[in-house]
């Protein structure tokens, strides 16, 4: 999928920015605070319907304004070109539109333009709590499977309903059992489908992770990603459901104590290893950084494998963190990558020498003070 | 913004509470009503107040009606052995439009949703059980609830209660709407429809 043009209105520090993009590598340079990341964030809005750098749409509106608008044209290999737009107005909320017709649900947008994002926040993936890793795996799968996304939304709803019962009927244990039952059936049914799908995808993902990691650092250390869940070794949805039902029953006393649903895929985790070493406990800073980057590149390879259309690849300030050798590896990878990519960098000199021979595949842009210009 | 007239402000405030209505549309409607002749405005206000005054809930199925029991429950052409369970009165109209369903209805008036403090006692499940007990000779309940988590939970709950009473519970099928082009189906529905495919 190619983002051919982009238009931003009152989006962060961009008052009005309109641009066309190159089909392959787009390099956006400019000083800190110029608005480079905001351009990537705008593309991210059109792919995922939300910002990657802010938790709330209202902070994305340009200071002193009440609304923002992002519009972009996309061109697929099998799909003809189409426009995606996202508008937000204070007090009225967000609207997503494809070819000017509004989408009823946010979820309908996901997967239309697959996206892979590399950002400085990725260090949380390997270093912080399981929630970061769950959202990685969920974003990974949701973009290829609307059914998975639907199940996920439904599962979260069931958990909220169920938790409410656990709190409200805390003092009425008999009534609680009776009321929980209809939710439990759905919980294990939907939850098992989620576990099954994660299980399959994580297994497929392994070879792509190895490939990406090898390209970055060679074969000395082999990365693995293991899935920690209920019924992680069960091979059928039915078996997973049995395990889930069993564990739900086993945790019944504890969850009544805590008044919370404590078993299920919403408590899953991924454990990362380099050879036999658990990364989170023993990995060096550099190993964390490379592992996180490898995960994202593997995501790109995975999509290349399973999707008709190549994803849009966004790299926000990756080179700030990498040594010159790794920078060169990543740059070469991008130059060979058949899809479209967007890279932001504060120091153009760090990468300018690496793109010389491929000027037809590289488009350069410069941003300052919320204004963008193409550099020829 | 405060309007100049207190009376107008009152009207706008009330109109703005209606579903799908914002303050701006409410102002537009209030201004429009001001320009209409007295008779027209009176008819509208009467229709609104009659709505609350004259409309009853059928004591059998809890659909809205002008006379109790409702025409559907009174009708002798209706099969009393089959009851279709729906969430709201509007769903009765949707099923009735098909002209195919010949049984009767039971309107729950909502679905179970702990987050909104709605439990089985807040909707008309006890009334349904009473209907079965009262010897209406109900053989089959057809669940025509929305396929969301709340609708499913309500269905499970009802099924569990009536199963022991010897009543069959069925649910309407999920899949692709007739007369809809495949390309307009959302991906999740289509995937489910593939999973539930049948021999041609």
Question: How is this structure best described in words?
Answer:
The complex is a heterodimer of chains A (376) and B (200). By secondary structure, chain A is α/β, with parallel strands linked by helices. Chain A folds into two domains: 1-114 and 310-376, P-loop containing nucleotide triphosphate hydrolases (Rossmann fold, 3-Layer(aba) Sandwich); 126-306, RecF/RecN/SMC, N-terminal domain (Glutathione S-transferase Yfyf (Class Pi), Chain A, domain 2). Chain A is built from eleven helices and 15 strands. Chain A has helices at residues 36-48, 123-127, 130-142, 146-168, 173-217, 237-250, 252-258, 279-282, 285-306, 324-336, 349-352, and strands spanning 2-11, 14-20, 25-29, 67-75, 82-89, 93-98, 101-102, 115-118, 223-228, 269-274, 277-278, 312-316, 341-345, 362-368, 371-375. In chain A, the strands form three sheets. Chain A has a six-stranded antiparallel sheet, covered by helices on one side. In chain A, helix 4 (146-168) packs antiparallel against helix 5 (173-217) and helix 5 (173-217) crosses helix 9. The two termini of chain A are 24 Å apart. With 200 residues, chain B is of the alpha/beta class. Chain B has two domains: 6-54, Helicase, Ruva Protein, domain 3 (Orthogonal Bundle); 75-171, Dna Topoisomerase Vi A Subunit, Chain: A, domain 2, CATH 3.40.1360.10. Helices cover 43% and strands 10% of the residues of chain B. Chain B contains eight helices and six strands. Chain B has a four-stranded parallel sheet with strand order 4-3-5-6. In chain B, helix 1 packs across helix 2 (23-35). The longest helix of chain B has 17 residues, at 38-54. The radius of gyration of chain B is 22 Å and the shape is globular. The termini of chain B are far apart. Chains A and B meet through helix 4 and helix 5 of A and helix 7 and helix 8 of B.
């Amino acid at each position: 999928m190619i983002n051919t043009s982009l238009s931003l209105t009152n989006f962060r520090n961009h008052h009005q920015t309109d641009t066309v993009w190159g089909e392959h590598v787009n390099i956006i340079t400019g000083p800190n605070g110029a608005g480079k990341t905001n351009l990537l964030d705008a593309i991210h809005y059109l792919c995922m319907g939300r910002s990657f750098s802010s938790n709330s749409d209202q902070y994305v509106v340009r200071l002193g304004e009440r609304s923002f608008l992002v519009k972009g044209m996309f061109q697929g290999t099998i799909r003809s070109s189409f426009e995606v737009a996202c508008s937000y107005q204070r007090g009225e909320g967000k609207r997503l539109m494809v070819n000017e017709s509004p989408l009823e649900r946010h979820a309908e947008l996901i997967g239309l333009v697959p996206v892979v994002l590399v950002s400085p926040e990725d260090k949380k993936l390997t270093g912080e709590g399981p929630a970061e890793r769950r959202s990685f795996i969920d974003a990974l799968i949701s973009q290829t499977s609307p059914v998975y996304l639907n199940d996920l939304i439904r599962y979260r709803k069931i958990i909220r309903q169920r938790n409410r019962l656990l709190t409200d009927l805390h003092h009425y244990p008999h009534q609680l059992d009776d009321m929980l039952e209809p939710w439990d059936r759905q919980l294990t049914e939907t939850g098992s489908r989620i576990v099954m799908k994660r299980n399959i995808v994580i297994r497929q993902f392994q070879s792509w992770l190895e490939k990406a990691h090898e390209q970055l650092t060679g074969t000395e250390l082999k990365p693995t990603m293991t899935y920690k869940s209920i019924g992680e070794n069960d091979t059928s949805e039915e078996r997973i459901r049995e395990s889930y039902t069993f564990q739900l029953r086993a945790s019944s006393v504890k969850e009544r104590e805590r008044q919370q649903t404590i078993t299920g895929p919403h408590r899953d985790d991924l454990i990362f290893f380099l050879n036999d070493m658990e990364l989170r406990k023993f990995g060096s800073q550099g190993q964390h950084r490379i592992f996180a980057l490898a995960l994202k590149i593997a995501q790109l390879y995975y999509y290349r494998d399973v999707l008709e259309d190549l994803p849009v690849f966004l790299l926000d300030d990756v080179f700030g963190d990498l040594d010159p050798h790794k920078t060169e590896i990543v740059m070469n990878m991008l130059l060979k990558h058949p899809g479209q990519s967007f890279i932001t960098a504060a120091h153009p000199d760090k990468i300018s020498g690496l793109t010389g021979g491929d000027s037809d595949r590289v488009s350069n842009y410069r941003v300052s003070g919320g204004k963008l210009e193409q550099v020829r | 913004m405060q309007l100049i007239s207190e009376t107008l402000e009152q009207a706008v405030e009330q109109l703005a509470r209606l579903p799908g209505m914002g303050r701006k549309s409410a102002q537009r409607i209030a201004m429009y009503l001001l320009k209409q002749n007295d008779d027209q405005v009176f008819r509208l206000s009467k229709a609104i107040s009659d709505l609350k005054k004259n409309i009853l809930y059928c004591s059998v199925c809890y659909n809205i009606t002008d006379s109790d029991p409702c025409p559907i429950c009174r009708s002798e052409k209706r099969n009393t052995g089959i009851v279709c369970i729906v969430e709201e009165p509007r769903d009765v109209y949707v099923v009735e439009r098909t002209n195919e369903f010949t049984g009767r209805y039971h309107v729950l008036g909502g679905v179970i949703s702990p987050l909104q403090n709605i439990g089985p006692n807040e909707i008309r499940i006890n009334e349904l059980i009473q209907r079965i007990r009262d010897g209406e000779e109900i053989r089959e309940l057809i669940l025509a609830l929305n396929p969301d988590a709340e609708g499913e939970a309500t269905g499970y709950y009802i099924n569990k209660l009536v199963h022991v009473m010897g009543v069959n519970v069925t649910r309407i099928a999920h899949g692709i709407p007739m007369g809809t082009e495949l390309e307009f189906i959302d991906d999740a529905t289509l995937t489910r429809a593939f999973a539930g495919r049948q021999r041609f």
